[in-house]
């Protein structure tokens, strides 16, 4: 029997509800993240929306301009979300009224969390059929599918099939034919259900709380895109967890991009499908849909998006209908950098990421390419300087991670990162080279330089390749600048900045990379440490052998001296030398006395 409960009679309990269970995600992004930005773009004002499954409450806040109905299986979640929704149905898809249809149905948590384990089980295909029936003709379905061969599973230290926690109601694998296992199978299922798939986004670094949504078709086509390279590396370097992983997900994601497989290895996909109205032609891919949605991590900016423009891709800010936050800016003069939302409005420069090009050339021991890239980078930075030799704005933070190269043209990829004050050109160059040197050495990459170089030493060498004479004092200043900038961009307090500066000053080639820890990188760091210990042990053994040989030579010399001291010739020679030595001392004493007597007389005569 259907009953109405508080608050305000918005909750419907058709039966099968889970009374002591919660599905709401624990990890949440500011303003709902890229998913909320995408949903806001897909939902016009006044639209009737069905949110099927557990979603971040911030998503409901972004959909305040629409009439939202939530379909949940958890009663505690219903109580938590009811104040933000127009209506909440608890108990699974079987509780949806047959005559209710919606303009947009969003199942961004997948279909498994939609149905209750306390009610009638429909299975994945049954839940899909019920949600498709709830989409009105001309409406749309936004559906998430987790990838059983995704990046998250490839790098996880715990196998997916070993899950024993309470949330593992369904453990999906490729052998479960009830679930689609890739994008093609999902498109086929949607087509069979009467929908027309029109767009697909790859979710990184985690399907449940993605910080980047990238158009899957463009990922397949634009394998050399500097934008996708930077976004994937940035999203996966921090990851959605601080647990130790098997290997570096950022490196694997970038390699997959350049191999044309970044979409296939995505942890999950968000597919947009439309239900054509009678006589309506199937909609083509909408050019107004974003190519990329990126969580910025700074309040006041929210989500950056990349859209198609007349002359290519353009930066923009994702639309929001929730509560606005003032634009981020430096709160005091101590802030070294900030992010300017107004700068995210121009074209996205084409080209490949400088960091990737440098790593590739270093791995191949191609010093000619390294020299050409660094010389062009240093010259481009010099062109950005003013008459006093200082660089301001976005160019002051133009390191290899945020610069794209297209032939001989260098450009800042994301111009919203800006320095508060102007920095000397040598410091800007040294900071960019130090960041690359630290990534190269701590990442365990093969390179053509001496293994005894430390990070500042390699920075000086790279400066020489760039045609600039950098010294260690300049590198030290660049490291302090890097600590101040990183502290400002990540919102660290004074103690955090001091700790970060100490950590950066002590970065050594034998350390693992700063950030996410992987067993592969930890093993490589251990091997470098073992090689260093072996080298130091050999040096110590050589030094001890040298000291031993010198000590033996000294003992032989002392023995020889002792033997010579007791010989007759030594005694005769000493008897002959001693009077001469005494006479010499007496002459020196007489000379000093004579000088002492004559000096006063000479002064009186003068």
From TrEMBL:
Matching InterPro entries: SAM-dependent_MTases_sf
Gene3D superfamilies on file: Vaccinia Virus protein VP39
Protein name: Class I SAM-dependent methyltransferase
Entries under SUPFAM superfamilies matching the protein: S-adenosyl-L-methionine-dependent methyltransferases (SSF53335)
Organism: Micromonospora chokoriensis
